[in-house]
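Re: beginner question about structure tokens

> Can someone show what the tokenized structure looks like for a real chain? I only ever see the sequence side.

Sure, here's an example I had lying around. Input first:
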Amino acid sequence: MKYRELRRCDNLKVSEISLGCEGFIGKTKEEYKNMLDRAMELGVNFIDMYTSNPEFRDNMGYSIKNKRDKIILQGHIGSSWEKGQYLRTRNPEKTKFAFEDQLKRLNTDYIDIGMIHYVDSVDDFNNVFNGEIIKYCIKLKEKGIIRAIGLSSHNPVVAKNAVETGYI
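And the corresponding structure tokens:
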């Protein structure tokens, strides 16, 4: 496996191949553990936990037990689980609740990369970076609860603006 160094993230070395984890949905906790163990045997150490699904988080927490120091977790910020549905949110209370729930279910006190999820429009970018969401992320980073702030976008203008803030 080849690894890349994330210089803005404490020089973490992440595998070039990562787990997006969509294939984990609907599996038992033993299947989660077996899939994660096999990926780690192959050198995969980067996991993007894209969903706020409570069952996913519980099973992932079970699977990473005694392995937390060997994996790089990317958890989404700005997503919630409501009425059985994954939703993007910019509501500060929902965002905080979902992130704290993630830590609890994973049995960890930190996430390596807190990724602000799905910022595709300039209006949404302005909302995130001029509001409570970025303030929350900065506080998490200052406290060591996240090691780095990330952002996902399909819009190159938004991505460029995000990088230029110096937070991402």
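Each token stands for a local structural state, so reading them left to right follows the chain. Residues 61 and 107 are 6 Å apart (CA to CA).
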